[in-house]
Amino acid sequence: MSSIELTPSQKNILQELVNLHRQSESAVKGEDIAEQVDRNPGTIRNQMQSLKALQLVEGVPGPKGGYKPTSNAYEALQVQNMDDAADVPLKHNGEAVPSANVEEIDLTSVHHPEECRAEIKLQGSISEFHEGDTITVGPTPLSKLRIIGTIEGKDDTSNILILTIDDMKAPVGDVEK
């Protein structure tokens, strides 16, 4: 499939549809997406029409209807199918977040420890995460890496939390879960 250029608004709405669909495993109502992205339900309906035309979503009619992402949606968002993915634990302010899974960890500025940052790409909604919150990621399956950091920012359209790293260790032995 050729690369589809989505507007930031379309990308944000599509990402939230994917997040909500993963949680419910059923059709997602436009009102639920609107609530998560802080938009009017009419705006969501209009955007869904253009996303349908791009074959990124399909409409499900009926009382339990709504929208479902197509396989093209995952490709457009560059989201991997995580059905058989290893579980990478995530804690938010010390509390486990079972509805999120870490898809990718990107370390930036590692040459300057005082400026070391990590970008954590999640599968799951990032709407409940805010600047200043503490995040613990890991240990990862192979390297047993654990990162503890403070949220410095977030990219809603790409589902990425940007952390200032407070502590990073590998390998980490048995960590209390």
TrEMBL record:
Pfam families tied to this protein: WHD_HrcA
Segments traversing the membrane: none
- Please provide, in alphabetical order, the Gene Ontology terms of the cellular component aspect for this entry: cytosol
Instruction: Provide the GO MF annotations for this entry.
Output: DNA binding; DNA-binding transcription factor activity
InterPro entries attached here? Tscrpt_reg_Rrf2 (IPR000944), WH-like_DNA-bd_sf (IPR036388), WH_DNA-bd_sf (IPR036390), WHTH_HrcA_DNA-bd (IPR005104)
Gene3D superfamilies from the xrefs? Answer: Winged helix-like DNA-binding domain superfamily/Winged helix DNA-binding domain (1.10.10.10)
Instruction: Cite the Winged helix-turn-helix transcription repressor HrcA DNA-binding domain residue spans from the record.
Output: 5-82
Entries under SUPFAM superfamilies matching the protein: Winged helix' DNA-binding domain (SSF46785)
Q: Which domain of life is it from?
A: Archaea
The protein's matches in PANTHER family, at most eight in alphabetical order, are given as: HTH-TYPE TRANSCRIPTIONAL REGULATOR YWGB-RELATED (PTHR33221:SF15), WINGED HELIX-TURN-HELIX TRANSCRIPTIONAL REGULATOR, RRF2 FAMILY (PTHR33221)
This chain belongs to the protein called HTH domain-containing protein
Q: Which organism is it from?
A: Halorientalis pallida
Species classification: Archaea, Methanobacteriati, Methanobacteriota, Stenosarchaea group, Halobacteria
